Amino acid sequence: MTHTVLHIDSSARFTDSASRTASAALVAQQNATHVITRDLSATTLPFLDETFAQATFTPPEARTDAQKAALETSDTLVAELQAADTIVIGVAVYNFSIPASLKAWIDQVARAGVTFAYTDTGPKGLLEGKKVVITFASGGTEIGSDIDFASSYLRFVLGFLGITDVTILNKDGAEVAAKAA
């Protein structure tokens, strides 16, 4: 049986990064047959724009070449997420929240009709059955505290995508309860 791990790092620091060190250790503990590595600080993801937005509302067979190009990165990131059984995310907390690179990744993978759907009873996540382990490193924002806007946001957005098995760890590996959203 295969076990695919998607390893996402979002710290702007490459040297001496506590979140990178912790997430790498978590990946090493997984019984992975395949690891997909996505370093969000190594390359810049595009921000959403008009072409992207229009492309997501256009049926695939009717998309222009420009719309197809606008979704190319998103399609790759979504495929990585869909292929993963376990997702390990290393997060450095900047200004009480997640790095902009991680927010850009979320914007690229949160796609109506692809990773979530609107139903008569409300939104439904389409990425069920996955496990996420998030390791946070923060110089002064205690994870789970009233000034932590990172952990509750990530737990919420992952749940919106259908991923509800989320474990949050501090940089020392201790499990932390996210503040209620």
Brief write-up:
This protein is α/β, with parallel strands linked by helices and 181 residues long. It has 5 helices and 7 strands. Strand 4 and strand 5 form a beta hairpin.
Which key phrases capture this entry?
five-stranded parallel beta sheet; 7 strands; single chain; Rossmann fold; 33% helix
Plain-language structure description:
With 181 residues, this protein is an alpha/beta fold. It has a single domain, classed as Flavodoxin domain (Rossmann fold). The protein has five helices and seven strands; from the N terminus they run E-H-E-H-H-E-H-E-E-E-H-E. The chain has helices spanning 18-29, 50-56, 65-83, 100-109, 150-160; strands at 4-9, 34-39, 86-92, 116-119, 122-125, 131-137, 165-169. The protein has a five-stranded parallel sheet with strand order 2-1-3-6-7, with helices on both faces. Strand 1 (4-9), helix 1 and strand 2 form a beta-alpha-beta unit. Helix 2 packs across helix 3. It is globular. The mean pLDDT is 94.
